[in-house]
Structures are given as C-alpha cells and as structure tokens.
Amino acid sequence: MSATASLPSAEPAVPKNVRWVLLGVMLAMLLSMLDNMVVSTAMPTIVGDLGGLEHISWVVTAYTLVTAVTTPVWGKLGDLVGRKSMYLASIAVFIAGSALCGAAQSMGELIAFRIVQGIGAGGIGAGAFALIGVLAPPRERGKYQGMTASVMAIGTIGGPLLGGFITGHWDWRWAFYINLPIGLLSLVWLALMLHAPSQHIKAKIDWLGIGLLTVAITAVVLAATWAGTTYSWGSWQILALGAVAVIGLALFVRVEKRVGEPLLPLSVFTNHRNYPLAMAMLLVAGVVMFGGGLYLPLFQQTVQGASATNSGLLMLPMMIPVVIVSTLAGKVMSATGKYKIFPVVGTAFLTAGLGLLATMDTGTSRLLTGLYMVLVGIGLGFTLQMASTIAQNSVALRDMGAAMSSVNLFRTLGGSLGVAVFGSLFTRATQSHLPGTGGTDASALRKLPAGTRDAYLDAVAVGTGHIFLTGAILCALAFVAALFVIEVPLKKAAPPDPAETDAVATAT
C-alpha cells in the first residue's frame, strides 16, 4: 500500500463519558468471547438435530481459523478508513452470521455461516483494543483494565453456564439467536456514543501481504488443530503445513519490508523492544487461558468427581482473582505510571501456580486445586492486561489498529497452539488406559472394574501433570521476557511515537 496522506500524531482528550463508551465496546467483545463457549456446550444437541458428527470439529475450527486470519486485516482497515466504522461493520457482520447460524438446516450450512461469524469476530477482537488505545492515553488505561478482565471472566465462566441453560430449556438455535439483541444493543449504543478520531487515507491495499499472512496463519491453525488428533505430529501432513507456515511467513516479512503501506508494519516489532516482549507474554497467557480452561475442568470432573453441569463454576477460583488483581494493578499503574513490576510478579505467580498444579494426583482435594488456581488467576491478572498496555504504549497512534490486532492474533494463536500441544501430551498419557465404554463421565467410570478405573484416573492425573509442567516452563520463559521490559513513562497525552522511545531502548 503506498499512502498519499498521513495522520497527525495528536490525540484528543479523554472523553468525559469514556466508561459508557467502553461499556459498548466491551459488550461487543463479550459477544465474541461468549459465542465459542456457548456453542461448544450446545454441540451435542446441534449434532443430534443436524447430523454430520464427522464434521463437528469444523464448527469450531472454521470460526477460529477465520477469526485469526481476518484480525490483522480488520486492524489495518481501521487504521486507514476509521476505527469506529470498522468496529460497527464487524459487529454487523457478526450479528448477520449469528442469525444465519441459527437458521442453518444442515451441518454444511452451519459451518459456512460460522465462517461469516468468524469474520465479524476478527474485527471485534482487533477493534476493541485499538479503540481503548485511542480513547484513553497510556496513563489512564489502567483504570479500565477491570472492565476488560471482567469481560474475559464472564465469557469464560458464563459461556458454559449459558450454553447449558439454553440447550436444557430452549432450542439450540438460541445459542446463536441470543447474540442478536445483545449485538444490536451494542451497535446502536456505539453508533450514538462513540466518537473516535476518523481518518481516510488513500492507499493501495496490500493484497499480497494479506494473502501470504492468510496462508501462514491458516497453516498454523490447521496444524495446531489436527496435530496429535487427526494426524500424528510427525506425519507428512503436519510437516507440510509447518513448511507452508514458515515459507508463507518468510515471504510475508519480505513483502512487508517493501510495500509503502504494509498490512502489519514491521516497525512495531523493531522500533521498541517492549512490543515483541509483550507479544511473547500474551502468547504464553493465551496458552494458559485456553489450556487451563480446557483441562482444569476435565481433571476436576474426571478425577475429583465434580459435576459437569456446573463446569463454568469450576473456573471461579482462577477467574475471580483475574478481575480483582487486574483492576487493582490498573489503578496503581494509573496513579504511579509504573508497570514493569506487574508482569514480572505475574509471570512468577503463573510459574508457581502451574508448577503446583503439575503435582496434582488422584488424591489431591478440590480445595487444594482451587488454591493452586488462585495463584494462576493472580498471575493472569497481573500479566494479561498489563502486557496489552505495554504493547499499546510502545506504538504510535498511526499504527494502533494493526498493532492491537497483533495482540489479539498472538493470544488466539497461543490458545490454538496450547490446546494442540496439550492435547497431544494428554492423549499420549491416557491412550493406553482409555476405558472400553461409551464415555468417560462419572456414570461410565463407575461401571468399570476398580483396577481399570484407577489406572485410567492415574493416567488422567499424569496427563494433566505433563500439561501444567509444560505451561510452567513456558511461563518461566515469559518471566525472563518480563525482566527485559523497559519502563517507559506512561504519558497523560497521546501514545508516544516509537521514534521517541527508541532512544531509551538503545541507551539501555
């Protein structure tokens, strides 16, 4: 893209009603977070109605893949055309996709309509963090971290509960139709109240960059989804996808260095070292969030006998500290302008919490598991939103959309890769001990001979132990990354231009 105009770097003062505006932004963000959780819970009922069990994984994979692919495109379009218009457009696309999914008459239609939903979700994820960066200067953003953390907690905990309620009391189609009133409320709310700086830059769209990044991300997500399940890690299919991802990424970097208006300006990674360090921490946080959210309830339901109907409540010991700690850390950051200590302490808590979770066995009580989860929640509260703030403080307003789309992209990829690797570790530990029954729920396990049941429960404990040990090692690496963060003062005006802070990075 060769730009013919440039944006001023100045930014208007924080709107007086910024909390009300951000409430509309968070409401749309909640939509996309809730959706996958609700749909996952409703999938058995959906398959029972539409059939197509062999294609069930694509209902989730198609949504995740398209979300990841379109995230950077939405972010760049927001930089070029206007963040408000792009955010409203993404909500509208998500609403349309939800209505189509609810009306689907076959599994093929549902997968196709989930792609439409995923396109909208990519824009919602990219636009939310960019709008926070535009509406609030760096020093003030900490005050609003609790809102973002609350949305994540509600999405993680409320999704399974809402999905269970809908499938138990309503038709499964309401798992999608429920998005319509919430989405329309958010759309009207933001159309009336959101006043973000608008820009219209005449530029050639970087179609080659979009294509190459799409190929690379698609290969990564498909490899993460299929490895260890559909195909073995060493199969030619997974190796081929890995090669495509590497080649596609290398060509993408080469193209982005040469075009006038790149899809993802590489300068955001090179002008200040805080940005790639923040991306590393977000990648690890995504692994912990998705991996912990999947395998902690599995351990508690299978080994500790917790009820599957209250699966969302099992995450409360981890998610409540996320909200509390994130809110407190944000207030301290806004008051003092200091932030480096938070990701350092946060990654240390994550390492310790996951290390303790790795020691669990069949005799570990739910109370002790809950205490370990509190440590992980504290770590996520200190790390997740603070890493996003560090990333926002490391880029110029001109590139905020593209940079913040990378925040969402890295978190999504971290989750996809984490689930894939963890799934392979878990399968390897439990495969030889899988009970020969129709399921592994509490009623099915009770019917097994005592020896077989105990062997399987031991295998589940070992498998989850491997998962959390791997997570602890990754968090230890994130701790090292946090130590290298440079504490550039948070300004009360516009976000600093990377050129201004590069001298600080070079000097240190």
Please give a structural write-up.
The protein is mainly α. The protein has three domains: 13-200, MFS general substrate transporter like domains (Growth Hormone, Chain: A); 204-260; 272-508, Growth Hormone, Chain: A. It has helices spanning 18-50, 56-81, 83-102, 107-135, 138-141, 145-169, 174-177, 179-193, 207-226, 236-258, 267-270, 274-302, 316-336, 341-357, 366-392, 400-430, 442-446, 450-483, 498-507. The protein starts with 17 loop residues before the first helix and ends with a helix.
Question: Would you report the number of β strands?
Answer: 0
Coarse morphology: globular
Q: What do the pLDDT scores average to? A: 75
| Biggest sheet statistics | none
Tally of discrete structural domains = 3
Please provide the ordered H/E string of secondary-structure elements: HHHHHHHHHHHHHHHHHHH
User: How much strand?
Assistant: under 5%
Question: Structural class given helices, strands, pairing?
Answer: mainly alpha
CATH architecture of the largest domain: Up-down Bundle
